[in-house]
Every structure is written in C-alpha cells, then in structure tokens.
Design goal:
241 residues, 3 domains, three-stranded antiparallel beta sheet, two-stranded antiparallel sheet, 6 helices, 15% strand, zinc, ubiquitin conjugating enzyme binding, RBR-type E3 ubiquitin transferase
Length: 241
C-alpha cells in the first residue's frame, strides 16, 4: 500500500497581503522637509503655525519659543518675511509651566508701552502696572499703592513712598535710586520678576539663588532675607522662614 504524503502547508493569501501592506506603509510613510533644521521629519512631528500655515518640526519650535521668551519677546513665525506670531493656546502642549507663565507675562508687558511700565519697587512683589492706571488711582504728588501687594509707592520715582520728601528732594538725596524714565529699570524688574531674583537692600545689586536657605550674603557683604527682601535679623531668625 502506497504511503500517503502530507501536502505542504500553504500560507494563506490574506496573510501575505497583510504583510505586503504593512511593509508598504513603512516604505511610504509621509515626511516633510523642515526649512529650519533641514531634516526630513515625519508629518506627525511637524508643527503648523495657526495663522499663516507655515510648518516646522516640533523640536525646533520648542527651542525657538524658549529663546524668544528669554529675549523678552513673544515667539513669532520663523518663516522669512512672515509677520505672524505663535499662539500660546496653539503651543500649549509644547510649553512647560514656567514657559507658559513667562509667555503670559510677555503678553501683559507688550500691552503696556515700555515708558509706561511701572514695576512694584518692593523686592518680594515686582508686580507690573501701567503709569496711566497708577496716575488715575493715585495722587498728583505721585503717591500710589501697588495693585497686588498694596505697598505704598511713588510712581513718579518708581521707588517705595518717600515720606516727608518731594520727588525733587528724593532725587537730590538719593540719585542712585532714582530713574529718570524707568525704561532700563523696567527691563531689569521684568527679568527679576520672571526669574525670582531679589535686590540687595543696601547696594541694590540683583541677586539670584539656585538653592539653599533664605539667608543671602551679597557681594557688598550685606546679609538679607531672600524671601522677604529685608535686612537679616540675627535676633529674630524665625521671621524669615
């Protein structure tokens, strides 16, 4: 009796077709050329600027946002000749919490002309305000109150309120603290506010802290509290923590 031979296994046609389709999808995956980094990038990793439609790779857009915010500007479309800016809502998923806070601060700053910007002179606050709004709420003498911390300030001199002194007397007695138009001071206060810097109450040098306790020793030798901005009280250390 002749032995029966077992037929060779035949791979189903639908499996072959599925494998071919999978290979083709890999081979023909859509890519786009990023004109900034000059790489070919998967279309899924490209960012579309909402108002103008220009597209760049997400990695570049993240770097671009960071650089512009550090430079004190609102991120713009990097396409040559394009005048549109990026939208904070459109970029929401690309931003860290700090970057979003800085961006909102930049939007607020851009809404106020540079010479109109007044920052609260108290180191623990540095809130941004408009000279026009301060003048409307304050007095002719320059006396006003910070909208946030409610500290007494002189919005003419951009310093804490100088009791029993006119602005001219204050300028004459403390020329190093007085700013004529406040433009440079506004830029510095903006950076201080965004980075959490504190101003030495003795020499007025800006100090930044990376880590450590609240007791800071400035380069001038003066010790002050980084939390509240006032001179360090050796006999009452608990008030600084």
């Amino acid at each position: 009796m002749a032995a029966r031979t077992r037929p060779a296994a035949v791979k189903p046609e639908f499996e072959v077709a599925a494998c071919d389709q999978k290979d083709n999808s890999k081979a023909y995956k859509k890519t786009e050329h990023c004109v900034i980094c000059l790489d070919d990038v998967d279309s899924d990793l490209m960012f579309n600027v909402e108002r103008c439609g220009h597209r760049f790779c997400i990695n570049y857009v993240k770097q671009h946002i960071e650089v512009k915010l550090v430079d004190g500007k609102i991120p713009n479309c990097h396409q040559h000749g394009c005048v549109f800016h990026l939208s904070i809502d459109r970029c929401g998923d690309l931003l860290t919490f700090n970057e979003r806070s800085v961006w909102l601060q930049r939007i607020k700053e851009n809404s106020i002309p540079l010479a109109e910007r007044v920052y609260c002179p108290y180191e623990s606050c540095s809130h941004l305000m408009s000279m026009t709004e301060l003048s409307r709420r304050g007095s002719y003498s320059g006396f006003g109150r910070c909208f946030k911390c409610h500290g007494d300030i002189c919005f003419h001199c951009r310093v804490p309120w100088h009791f029993n002194l006119s602005c001219n007397d204050y300028k004459r007695l403390f020329p190093s603290k007085y700013r004529e138009d406040g433009v440079d001071d506004a830029k510095l206060k903006s950076l201080a506010s965004l980075n959490g810097w504190r101003q030495c109450p003795k020499c007025y040098h800006m100090v930044g802290r990376s880590y450590g306790c609240n007791r800071i020793t400035c380069r001038c030798g003066n010790a002050f509290c980084y939390k509240c901005g006032y001179l360090w009280r050796r006999l009452q250390p608990r008030v600084h923590f």
